[in-house]
Amino acid sequence: MFSRWVLAASVASLVACSGGNQYADLDAFVAEKRAAPSGQITPIPALKAYRAFSYTASGLRAPFNRPVDVKEIARLEATSNIKPDLKREKEFLEQFSLDSMTVVGTVRLDGVLWALVKDPDGGVHRVRKNNYLGRNYGKIIDVAENYLTVVEIVSTGGDGWVERPRSLELKVRK
């Protein structure tokens, strides 16, 4: 008996809610807009091909460094016995410029402090004192917790060579 009352109440509420076309004005508006001619869409303009900039001045002297004094170089050449060991087998990191490498960490193994150096290709390499890196015969002379010190042997342009100390600092992400 109760279920009949529930059924009758549900049918009555459905019939009461379905009365009349309440959306006649909305249906007319939509039909009018669909019947109207559509506008023209302008085509997307063709994009000009992007040409990457090639920076070729990386090997030149930095504009904020002092110019090299030719007389000083001649004096250093005359008194210097510095020469790179050209018979030594090159290490892997000597194929990259020193500026393109970064120190990303240090590790102490068996009492020896190793620096972790990231090359431009994304590889991370372990280096320690007396290893070589960089294109200018750079020899690592000191490895510390947050930097490593390298002495490069650079040609003076003549027959001489000079030592140039450099350092690579640990890159810390913030």
Structure notes:
With 174 residues, this protein is of the alpha+beta class. The protein has a domain at 87-169: SH3 type barrels (Roll), CATH 2.30.30. The chain is 22% helix and 26% strand. The protein has 3 helices and 7 strands; from the N terminus they run H-H-H-E-E-E-E-E-E-E. The strands form 2 sheets. Strands 4-5-6-7 form a 4-stranded antiparallel sheet. Strand 4 and strand 5 form a beta hairpin. 11% of the residues are buried.
Secondary structure elements and their pairing?
Blueprint: H1 2-17, H2 24-35, H3 70-79, E1 102-109, E2 112-118, E3 124-127, E4 132-133, E5 138-143, E6 147-155, E7 161-169
Antiparallel strand pairs: 1-2, 2-3, 4-5, 5-6, 6-7
Kindly name the structural category: alpha+beta
CATH topology of the domain at 87-169: SH3 type barrels
End-to-end separation in angstroms reads 74 Å
Spatial sequence of strands, sheet with the most strands: 4-5-6-7
Average pLDDT value? 84
Number of helices: 3
Regarding quaternary structure, what we see is single chain
- Strand segment count: 7
Strand content: 25-35%
Main sheet: strands, sense, barrel = 4 strands, antiparallel
Radius of gyration using CA atoms only: 38 Å
CATH architecture of the domain at 87-169: Roll
Which regions contain 5 or more consecutive residues with pLDDT less than 50? none
State the order of secondary-structure elements, H for helix, E for strand: HHHEEEEEEE
- Top-tier CATH class of the domain at 87-169: Mainly Beta
Q: Provide the helix percentage.
A: 10-25%
What's the overall geometry?
elongated
